[in-house]
Specification:
Blueprint lengths: L10 E4 L6 E5 L2 E5 L5 E11 L1 H12 L26 E9 L2 H14 L11 E4 L3 E5 L5 E2 L5 E2 L4 E5 L4 H18 L7 H5 L17
Parallel strand pairs: 4-5, 5-6
Antiparallel strand pairs: 1-4, 2-3, 6-7, 7-10, 8-9
Helix pairs in contact: 1-2
Amino acid sequence: MEGAESKQLDIVVTTNSCPRYMLTTGEHAKSFAPIDGTIAVVNAKSTLTTEQLEDALDNLASIPTQTPLTTDRLAVGANISDYEDWPYKVIYATDGIAMPTLLKSIDAYYRNHPEIPSTRRPNLIHVAGKYSVLRILHENAETTCGKKIPKGTFFGQPDETDVYAIQHTLSVIQERALSAQFIVFEYWDILNKLPITMADDARYILPPE
């Protein structure tokens, strides 16, 4: 946790031990959570136009990198895959452009921004009542017809029922919430980096000599 801050994310799902901070200024409020302990984020749009899609992709790309999952932070015997791809990243909209247009827009965006790592690209894009687009995480993925899908591909499918997108999201969040119980998260670094200055009239006691 190096102090980097992401752009706006509408929903942040964390572990039950992850601290949350609510900052209020006048009529405005911002909620913050450390990247370590965050398991899912959602960027929500009312209508997903190409412009709004690019805005959402920018926001997800800004998510800071989490602390590496070293063996001293992992419970003995635990095996957690794809941790570098945490948090699970969703773009959700109640309406939006046609799926072929969206896929072309994603391709164009990442051709123009090759510096954005795959771990900071959306895992799922869901336009309610229309379709869902999934980023393939692993090699040897296949469609139900047996067609191979390369790793990193954005694979779209029509889904008027929304069942696949909703169930997939809930399953991943539940799986990562369970996995997070085997990871040691520490937040002392937040306190250590606070710019605390002792006031002139501060009271303190010296230890006996």
